[in-house]
């Protein structure tokens, strides 16, 4: 299978180290009463999991882009970052940090979703049901 290479969203180890220190400082509280710190639990899930970067290429208001967004927002998918490439300006800004975004295009004129994990992207999909399968 062909995969695009995509660097993690920030690639800044200082962010990871800061998160690890913060979670360590609250470890006893998290163990005793995890429901008291729901956002910290979410941060812990993010730190321990494998984040997915999902890049949507399409016009924000178009029906096909909206269908892909609905597929993403109607499911619980922890550890995700969604980036929308809906203009030349957005492409330029995102590609400045993540060069792989420069080559991500609509497929056959339809909004397309690239689901990436661990520095590699699946082939793009244009169908909301196929996107749902990829993110489950």
What this model shows, in words?
This protein has 136 residues and is of the alpha+beta class. Helices cover 43% and strands 16% of the residues. A 5-stranded mixed β-sheet has the order 1-5-4-2-3. The longest helix is centred in the N-terminal third of the chain and has 13 residues. 17% of the residues are buried.
Name the strands of the widest sheet in spatial order. 1-5-4-2-3
Which geometry do the CA atoms define? elongated
Task: Describe the sheet with the most strands.
Answer: 5 strands, mixed
Q: Considering DSSP H and I runs of 4 or more, what fraction of the residues is helical? A: 40-55%
Calculate Rg over CA atoms: 17 Å
Global mean pLDDT: 88
Structure summary, number of beta strands: 5
What structural keywords apply?
136 residues; alpha+beta; five-stranded mixed sheet; 6 helices; 5 strands; 43% helix; 16% strand
In short:
With 136 residues, the protein is α+β, with helices and mostly antiparallel strands.
Strand-helix topology:
Layout: E1 4-5, H1 13-25, H2 27-32, H3 38-48, E2 52-57, H4 63-73, E3 80-85, H5 88-97, E4 112-117, E5 120-121, H6 128-135
Helix pairs in contact: 1-3, 4-6
